[in-house]
TrEMBL record:
Matching PANTHER family: METHYLTETRAHYDROFOLATE:HOMOCYSTEINE METHYLTRANSFERASE RELATED, UROPORPHYRINOGEN DECARBOXYLASE
Subcellular localization: Cytoplasm
Protein name: Uroporphyrinogen decarboxylase
Keywords for this protein: Cytoplasm, Decarboxylase, Lyase, Porphyrin biosynthesis
Lyase as UniProt keyword: yes
UniProt EC number: 4.1.1.37
GO molecular function, one term: uroporphyrinogen decarboxylase activity
Pathway: Porphyrin-containing compound metabolism; protoporphyrin-IX biosynthesis; coproporphyrinogen-III from 5-aminolevulinate: step 4/4
Subunit structure, interactors included: Homodimer.
Source organism of the structure: Jiangella alkaliphila
Role of this protein: Catalyzes the decarboxylation of four acetate groups of uroporphyrinogen-III to yield coproporphyrinogen-III.
One biological process term in Gene Ontology: protoporphyrinogen IX biosynthetic process
UniProt-annotated site: Transition state stabilizer, residues: D86
Length: 355
């Protein structure tokens, strides 16, 4: 058998990286680690750079995108970079009046609720996000052997913002539309799916090593409604991705994890509600990503350390495990704690036997 030193210098080709091998379901001696929302958020160097530049404008400036994407790689030595952008960037690119309000999230000038409103959702032309193409190409050059993860919002999560007009606790306008006018609903989701698929395609063609589809609000749905009203559209996005591994992530989706997997996931993202050993039973054969509760990063270090060890151990029940949080980094998180989490995971090599 060949033995690897998982902590040796990163190989020059990202497809040989620890992250890529875990995505392919190869058992690695320790999990690769990165964090959702590692770019931006809690980093002081990010806040300094962003001063006076609105969020969505920063996403259109390849120099800023490149720098912000690299910041957490430099600071933490994570095993993958996530492209700095936002799920609403492709919506804005096709002309939707959407902005990201600090402390709030995406807000629409006018929500999309009628058949006439659908005209606002025309297909995305790659040239409309040429700044994404440019930034990804620059990053792939800078990152060397470290893989770059591209991403898009899943159709349901994007549709919720579009229909509600902003963040929503109960998603009631969205659910009312879904059930009252299924035909309009499916047309809306299929348009959004086309936009997300093209956004991913631009990133993959420019050299992204993997993609993640974020369905942050899918957990608001029952399994039956997810299967009927959402799954076909997320499947359309994931099916369109060629040649790179696809991570499918939802929050509160433990009750329908097999549906998340069957939509076309090579890796299933798991939130903190479900232990990874249990998740491994629900989606047998699938590599898993997760699942430290981001809210626990504020606890005393021994608590965090114990959680990291528990998750690494439970992750060994899956064919492969990519260490991450169960949702994104919270804004008040101490970057020093994230650095210690990375160190702890990266020191976990050979700490136990696969079981
Ligand atoms: O993960 C990364 O570090 C890469 C960049 C990234 C951002 N948003 C940057 C961002 C990614 C992958 C996203 C995805 C995203 N955006 C999701 C799915 C992931 C999740 O966390 O559920 C969602 C739901 C959005 C929509 C959105 N954009 C929200 C809810 C917010 C937060 C609003 C706030 O201020 O609390 C944003 C803004 C946003 N997107 C910020 C960043 C770094 C913060 C903006 C700022 O610092 O001014």
């Amino acid at each position: 058998t060949v033995t690897y030193d998982e902590n040796a210098a990163a190989p020059a080709d990202p497809s040989d990286s620890l992250f890529a091998r875990a995505c392919r379901g190869e058992r690695t001696s320790r999990p690769p680690v990165w964090f959702m929302r590692q770019a931006g958020r809690s980093l002081p160097e990010y806040r300094r750079l962003r001063e006076g530049v609105p969020m969505l404008e920063s996403c259109t400036r390849p120099d800023m995108v490149t720098e912000i994407t690299l910041q957490p790689v430099r600071r933490y030595g994570v095993d993958a970079a996530i492209f700095y952008s936002d799920i609403v960037v492709p919506l804005r690119a096709v002309g939707v009046d959407v902005d990201v309000k600090p402390g709030v999230g995406p807000v629409l000038g006018r929500p999309i609720r009628s058949r006439a409103d659908l005209d606002l959702l025309r297909p995305l032309e790659p040239g409309e996000v040429s700044f994404v193409d440019e930034a990804v190409r620059a990053l792939v050059g800078e990152l060397g052997g470290t893989p770059l993860i591209g991403f898009a919002g899943a159709p349901f999560t994007l549709a919720s913002y579009l229909v509600e007009g902003g963040p929503s606790k109960h998603h009631e306008v969205t659910k009312a539309l879904m059930h009252s006018d299924p035909e309009l609903w499916h047309e809306l989701l299929s348009r959004v799916a086309g936009i997300s698929a093209m956004f991913l395609d631009v990133q993959v063609r420019a050299g992204a090593s993997a993609v993640q589809l974020f369905d942050s609000w899918a957990g608001a749905l029952s399994a039956a409604d997810y299967a009927k009203y959402v799954h076909p559209h997320s499947a359309e996005v994931l099916d369109s991705v060629i040649d790179v591994p696809r991570i499918h992530f939802g929050v509160g989706t433990s009750e329908f994890l097999p549906l998340m997997a069957s939509a076309g996931a090579d890796v299933v993202g798991v939130d903190w509600r479900l232990p990874l050993d249990e998740a491994a039973l629900r989606v047998p054969g699938k590599p898993l990503q997760g699942n430290l509760d981001p809210a626990l990063l504020g606890a005393d270090w021994p608590v965090v350390e114990r959680e990291v060890h528990r998750i690494v151990a439970e992750g060994r029940r899956a064919p492969a495990h990519i260490f991450n949080l169960g949702h994104g980094v919270l804004p008040a998180t101490d970057p020093g704690v994230l650095a210690r989490v990375v160190e702890t995971v990266q020191a976990a090599g050979g700490a136990g036997v696969a079981g």
